[in-house]
Amino acid sequence: MGYKITDHLLKVSPGDIKSPGFFIKRNNTSVNCTVSLRQYCTTFEDNFKSPFMKTKILLFAIATITTLSCKKENIMDTKIQADGEIAGIGDFNNTQPKTFQPLLMAQKIEAYMNGKVAGYGYTIMHDGKPWFLNQGGGGWARYRIDAPNTAFRHGYQSRQGIANAAKFVTALATISLLEKYGLSLDEKIYPYLPTNWKPSAEFKQLSFRRLLEHRTGLINYGKNIADYKKTVEDGVNMFLFEEGCRIYDDVNYGLAMILLPYLNTKKGNPTDYTFLKSLQDQPLELEEKLIYRFINIAGLTVFKPTGFAYWQNVNYTPWSNNAYMISTYESSAGYSTIDGSTPGIPKWDERKVAAARGLYISAWEFTQIQAAAAQYKIVSKAGYEAMRAQLLGFDGAVAGAHGRYTWKKGSGDNFESMIFDFGKTQVAVFANSPHSHISEDPTILINAFDESWDTLQ
Predict the structure, then answer these.
(1) Which domains are delineated in the chain?
(2) Stretch (H or E) spanning 428
C-alpha cells in the first residue's frame, strides 16, 4: 500500500513513482541498483509508524532517488502549481485562498533552532523584502574558548562557512558567463581547458549543462590542478556517462575553477588568455592565477549584480566589508557542542576549492543573492528557470502546497546550511554546529513554510 501525504507537502503515491535504476562503481565492484519509492517506504515502515516520520522519509527517499536518477525528468513535478502566486492560491483540497506570513515562519524557525545549535542566523526574503525577528538568529558565532578569547553573537548578519551551498553561486556565475557570450548550457566544456591537456573522447562530449546537473560520470582524483588534469584525460565511468546518471560529486563544480577563467579570457580577453597559456607548463602558478580569476568572476557576475557595495571583498576565506581577508581569529567557528565547551573548527581558507564549496557569508547576504537571482538580475529568466527545473546549483525539489520548492544544502567542519527558493520567497538558515539537522532534512523548512499561511479574510 502506497503512502498518501495529507499535510500538503506532496500529493503523490510512492507506488506510482519509480527511478530507472542507477549504477555505482566503488573499488572496481559494480552494483546495479534499481529502486522505487515503494521499496524505500517499505524498508522504513516497520520502524517509523507516525505520519510525520512517513512524510520525512518519503521526502528523503524522493531526494535520494532524484540525486541518483539516470533520467532527466523530475519525478516530483506530478502535481505542481504556479510558482510564487500568493493571493488567490489554495492548497490541493481547494480550500479558501491563503496568504504567506513571513514573521510566522520566522517564529517557527526560531522555535525549532533555539537550543539546538551553538549559534544560527536566518533571513526570509519575501517579494524582495527581508524578514526576521530580533537579531535573526541566536547563540554564538564564536565562543571565548577560542583564541584570542573573544566571543560574538550569531544572527542574520553573522558570516560563516556554508560548505557545499556555495555551488548555487557557481551555477549562477557559469550561466551568467555563458549568457554574456551568447552560449547555451549545451556548450561543450573541453575547449575551455589548458591547451596542453588531452581530454578523453568521453570528456569531449560533456556540456556545461551536464556538469551543473552532476550527470558526467567523471572520476574524482582530488582537488589539485594535477588531479583535475587526470580527471579530464583518464576517461569516465561509462555506465554513469552513457545513462546520464545524476551522481553528486565536487569534481563537477570544482572544474568550474578552471573552465570559467578560460571561457572568460578566450571569449573576452585574448591578452589574458595568452597569459594563461604561457603558464601551462607551470601548473602551480597557473592554479593560483585561475583561483584569483574564478573568484573575480563570481564577484562580477553574482555579488556585484546583487548590489553588494563591497562585492570585491566577498571571499571563500574570512573577510570583512573593508578587507578581502581577515584573520580566522575574527571569524565564526564550527562547534561540535552547543555550549562552547570544546574549541571550534575555524573557517579555513577554501579559495582553492571555491567553485565547489567554502563561501564565507551571512544568511542576510545570501538571501539577497537568492532574491536577485529570482528577480533575474544575475541571469535571465530562462537561465534561472533552468536552474530550478533541472536542479543546477540545487540539490532537490518538491511540488509543494504553494508551488515548486527547490533547495540546496551544505555541511562540513561543524557548519551546516540550507537555502530554499519557494517561488516569491527565499530562505537561508545557517548554523555553526551540526545538531539541528537542517542540512539533512528539507522537511524542517518545508513544514515551517507550509504552516505559515493564513486564510485571507
Answers:
(1) 1-79 (no CATH), 98-165+329-455 (3.40.710.10), 169-302 (no CATH)
(2) strand 425-431
